[in-house]
Structures are given as C-alpha cells and as structure tokens.
Design a protein that fits this description.
- There is one protein chain.
- The chain is an alpha+beta fold.
- Helix content is about 25%, strand content about 15%.
- It is globular, with a radius of gyration of 17 Å.
Length: about 260
C-alpha cells in the first residue's frame, strides 16, 4: 500500500501550531455508544471507537461479528482496532475475496443521512444529493479552520482526493460558515486540496441536520449513492489513508464492488 507522500511544510506546520491532536470538541462528550466497557470521555476528549479486543467470526459480506471489550481511549494517536459494528468494537476478520483486510476503525454512523440537500461550494458552485448518486461512496470530512487537527490532515485529504477512483469521491464541509471562507480557501490552497468544499447555510436541507449532529472535529462520514450514512470515524487519524481505504473497502465489499488501493 502506498503511503501519503504529501508532508506538511514548515510554514504549514507552524500554521497548525505544531499540533496533531485526536480532535476538537464542539459539544460535551457523550457516554460511549460502542457497547463495550467504555468509560465516559470528558470534553475535549474524543471517543476514538475504543480498543476492540474481540475475535470476529467473519462472514462472506466481510463483516466480523466481534465480541470485544471496548473502552474509550484518548491519546495522541488512534487505537481503534475494530470493524465498528461489533459490541465493543470487535475485531472482525471476515473478508470477501481480497477486497477488505478485516480492519476498519470506522464506527456505526451517528450523523444524519443526506437524502435531500443542496449546498453552495466554497468557489460559488452548487453541490446536491444528485452529486452523491453518481458515486458508490462519498467520503465527507467535516472540519473547521479553528481546529488544528482538521488543518493538519488537509494535505493528506488532498492527496487521497486525487488518488480515489471514479466511483468514490471525497468532499469536505466547512463548519465555519461564510465568515471562515477566506481563511479556509487559504488553508485548502496551501494543502493542495482541489476537491469540493461545501459551505452550509440554513437552506441546505439535510446537510444542516448532519452538521448539527457533529460533536467533534474532524468527523469523517461515508455515504452511499442514496445519501445514507454508512459509517464514520471521529478525530484526526495518524494513518489517514489506511483509515479511509479500509473504511471504503469494507463498504465496497458489502456492495460486491472491487476494492480501492490508495
């Protein structure tokens, strides 16, 4: 598997204050919802999905039935090791051919579906639910200019966005509104990101509901062609390309579609 080649420049690292934290809290931390023995994470800690220690019994859909002992674990790197769907983030080992290696740090989604929405892009265009319909999977990264981990991972997102195949797309959603557009454009340009960035407004339909569900930044959600939320992971990932590749390939395996390779 290729690793991301884009590195933060000294200036870019300075802009992020040299930080790479798990994530930025935008609301009080919830009690763990992974079914395991997780202790409550206190704000601004971010639930990283826990450490799934269970052994999954894989089926042909590629989803392991994990029996794990989940615990909320906040450090400067992500230790989630489960498929996101077993109790306590069980480590499912099910595979469908060679399309998924059984490791997926993504969790079951807590963010609303995007069945009906229309939003303005940061460059003045329009992006709607119809733009999801043409892709098997859309990876949506919710971020803010005030969140150092969000800014720090943007060069990696830019590289991933360029490498994705035609049936998968990656977009970002700016949570700062119009007041953050100018600075966001500078961050995106410096990171080399050339993809779509949405700027939600009150008339953006289901996108506003999704934005209201965001409790930590960055949050990355996978949606299918109908705008149904499939999975998500919260907080900055130390191995972002692996996290996205595995999460996407898990869902593609369930669809019977070929895997991607970043």
């Amino acid at each position: 598997m290729k690793k991301i080649s884009v590195k933060l420049t000294a200036a870019f690292a300075a802009a992020t204050m040299g930080l790479f934290a798990v994530g930025c809290s935008v609301a009080p931390a919830p009690a763990p919802a992974d079914g395991g023995n997780g202790a409550n994470a206190a704000a601004p800690q971010v639930p990283d999905g826990g450490q799934g220690n269970g052994q999954g019994n894989g089926n042909d859909s590629g989803q392991g039935n994990g029996q794990g002992n989940g615990s909320q674990h906040h450090e400067d790197e992500h230790h989630g090791n489960g498929n996101g769907y077993g109790n306590g983030q069980g480590n499912g080992n099910g595979q469908r051919g060679d399309s998924w290696d059984g490791t997926d740090v993504a969790q079951a989604p807590t963010v609303s579906d995007l069945g009906n929405f229309s939003a303005t892009t940061i460059d003045g265009g329009t992006f709607t639910a119809a733009d999801l319909a043409s892709k098997d999977i859309t990876v949506v990264n919710f971020w803010s200019i005030t969140c150092p981990p969000c800014v720090a991972e943007m060069p990696d997102l830019a590289e991933i966005q360029r490498e994705l195949p035609a049936n998968v797309q990656l977009i970002t959603v700016l949570l700062d509104g119009q007041s953050g557009v100018q600075e966001a454009q500078s961050i995106l340009n410096q990171a080399g990101y050339r993809g779509v960035t949405l700027v939600p407004t009150q008339d953006s339909g289901d996108l506003i509901s999704a934005v209201s569900d965001i409790m930590y930044m960055p949050t990355t959600v996978l949606y299918d062609s109908q705008g149904v939320a499939l999975s998500e992971f919260v907080g900055g990932q130390m191995d972002l390309d692996d996290a996205i590749e595995n999460a996407v390939n898990h869902q593609l395996s369930l669809m019977g579609k070929p895997a991607i390779d970043l």
